[in-house]
Structure prediction request, 189 residues.
Amino acid sequence: MSVTTSPHQRFGDRSDGDSDGDGDRRGRRLLQTRDLLRRYSIVDRTLDRWLADPRLNFPKPMIVNRRRYWSESEVDAFDAEQKLATARALRAKAEAKIDAAQKAEARGEITGKKPKGNLDEAVGAIPPGAYSIKAFCIAHNISEAFFFKLKEEGRGPREMAVGRRTLISIEAAADWRHAREADAATEAA
Prediction:
């Protein structure tokens, strides 16, 4: 007996009550091609290029009835790896600026000329691991008053205490943005 399930249903949630699916597939949501195109704001041809590029390591789709479906968890893992690669590249670029600034300062001491590199600017290029509340508000273009209003309503980002400081991790900020986008989408519908 063949059971047709919607790609948005979770594995194991079959209408005939059959729940003996594979354990590793249970609970994974499938994304259709159109879902990926919307997620990344791309066209079909771009997706085909990503799949053909072995350096990108984009998740391979499952083919069901000549349609392509992606595991949401694999796509999320790909996104996380891309963010990590971007952060590594930014960090390497910032470290190169720091090295250049330090060398310029050293040359200035030796030659007696004013250094050309600015170490403070180079250090500022390193992406933060967490935001202070003020930095979070600046990064997301909201006022601190609005931040505390959102927090009071239970719609603020997750916070962590580090000593006496309250910080918001980069991941919590990303989760908060996704939640706000989802809220906006449901309000629009």
